[in-house]
């Protein structure tokens, strides 16, 4: 249980190299390629699983997960506004980051389950897509109100056609249409190399996280506390929702991880366009400098333990 | 139009703005633009080029003095308040200057 996965060492290695101000960096095209592979693979895994079961059976789960996506930012917003004393725009933007999900964290959770031979529902990848979007809309409304001036088509374009969501949806559809036997021919590149690709991705994430540590010092204790306590509370909510939806312990832990994770790709880009007055450094410091490392180092094993714990209480 | 009316407008800004800037540039009558990824350091701190939320671009526009003035004014009003942006113009001599002044 306590053996550290090699991909985590890659993250720590990147973090250390970044903290030491090493010259190390992944060429940006390689980073783009690696994140593209991750997104497509995750999408395809989910799609293949969707091909295996009637879609209508999943509708209740989909409904609940989307609702949760709308709800989570509303929980974070008042804390940021009234305890953290951030401006309305900043609070809304940070809340949107925490309501949305991080694909990187999801990938680490999947790797964790695989290396511990824990079963989980593979269609969780669908939830990644579903949880990515609602928080962005809520964040914009929290910042601006429901004003008619808002250019929703521009926002929609940014959100739906952004790289992250497009690759995930594309992978999902390709996996769905090809089915399990169809994707076999391309699985050496996508599925067999998954962990190696994830390792390289996490190396770069470590380097990026290291650049956020400086601003963490500047913005201090509130963001640090918020970045750790929020995922813990959201993870408990995710665990309860997972149990309510009758997911396996592995699936529940992954849903908890999704609730706990904070976006650092899709949401920052959307917020920068839609809520320009929000300071992007604040939300990125919290989501990338605190919550991402916390989730992959401590969170995921903890959430799995939590899911198991609830399982034992409820079903024994 | 004389050759010395041609300006090179250079904009350093956040990669997130690319789509909207391109739209502005086309609408305000420039005939083209060049975009490159950029990295460096300024009042908004170190900006790497790997990661989109933290990366910068450099946009160069060759246009007439008029268009460059309009563009500068528009960009200043729409983006200066909330975004990291540096704009400067240089007078340049360019071959086939009529390409840029139509």
Shape assignment of chain B: elongated
Alpha-beta classification of chain B: alpha+beta
What spatial form of chain A do the alpha-carbon principal axes imply? globular
- Sheet of most strands of chain B: 4 strands, antiparallel
Q: CATH first level of chain B: which class? A: Alpha Beta
Sheet with most strands: strand arrangement of chain B: 2-5-1-6
How many domains, in number, for the residues of chain B?
1
| Rounded Rg of chain B | 14 Å
Question: How do the helices and strands follow one another from N- to C-terminus of chain B?
Answer: EHEEEEHE
| Tally of separate domains of chain A | 1
- For the secondary structure, the number of strands of chain B is 6
Query: What is the helix content of chain A?
Result: over 70%
Can you tell me the CATH architecture of chain B?
2-Layer Sandwich
Span between termini of chain B: 10 Å
Percentage beta strand of chain B: 35-45%
Number of strands of chain A: 0
CATH fold name of chain A: Na+/H+ antiporter like fold
Could you tell me the radius of gyration of chain A in angstroms?
19 Å
Second CATH tier, the architecture of chain A: Up-down Bundle
């Amino acid at each position: 249980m306590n053996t550290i996965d090699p991909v985590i060492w890659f993250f720590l290695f990147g973090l250390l190299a970044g903290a030491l101000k090493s010259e190390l960096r992944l060429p940006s095209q390689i980073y783009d390629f690696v994140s593209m592979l991750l997104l497509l693979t995750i999408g395809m895994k989910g799609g293949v699983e969707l091909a295996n079961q009637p879609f209508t059976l999943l509708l209740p789960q989909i409904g609940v997960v989307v609702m949760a996506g709308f709800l989570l930012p509303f929980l974070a917003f008042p804390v940021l506004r009234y305890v953290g004393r951030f401006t309305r725009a900043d609070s809304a933007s940070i809340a949107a980051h925490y309501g949305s999900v991080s694909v990187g964290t999801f990938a680490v959770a999947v790797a964790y389950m695989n290396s511990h031979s824990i079963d989980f529902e593979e269609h969780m990848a669908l939830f990644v897509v579903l949880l990515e979007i609602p928080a962005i809309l809520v964040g914009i409304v929290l910042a601006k109100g429901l004003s008619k001036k808002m250019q929703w088509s521009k926002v929609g374009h940014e959100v739906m056609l952004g790289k992250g969501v497009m690759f995930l949806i594309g992978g999902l559809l390709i996996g769905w249409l090809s089915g399990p036997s169809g994707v076999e021919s391309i699985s050496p590149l996508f599925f067999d190399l998954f962990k190696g690709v994830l390792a390289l991705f996490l190396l770069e994430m470590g380097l990026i996280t290291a650049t956020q540590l400086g601003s963490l010092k500047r913005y201090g204790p509130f963001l640090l506390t918020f970045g750790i306590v929020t995922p813990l509370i959201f993870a408990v909510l995710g665990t309860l929702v997972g149990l309510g939806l009758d997911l396996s312990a592995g699936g529940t832990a992954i849903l908890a991880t999704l609730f706990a994770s904070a976006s650092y790709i899709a949401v920052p880009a959307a917020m920068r366009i839609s809520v320009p007055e929000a300071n992007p450094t604040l939300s990125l410091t919290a989501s990338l400098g605190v919550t991402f490392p916390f989730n992959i180092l401590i969170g995921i094993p903890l959430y799995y333990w939590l899911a198991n714990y609830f399982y034992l209480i409820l079903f024994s | 139009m004389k050759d010395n009316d041609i300006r090179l407008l250079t904009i350093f800004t956040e990669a997130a703005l690319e789509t909207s800037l391109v739209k502005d540039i086309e609408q305000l009558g420039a005939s083209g633009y060049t975009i490159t990824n950029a990295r460096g350091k300024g009042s908004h701190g170190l900006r790497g080029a790997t990661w989109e939320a933290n990366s910068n671009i450099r946009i160069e526009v060759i246009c007439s003095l008029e268009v460059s003035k309009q563009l500068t004014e528009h960009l200043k009003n729409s983006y200066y308040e909330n975004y990291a942006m540096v704009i400067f113009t240089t007078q340049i001599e360019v071959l086939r200057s009529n390409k840029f002044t139509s």
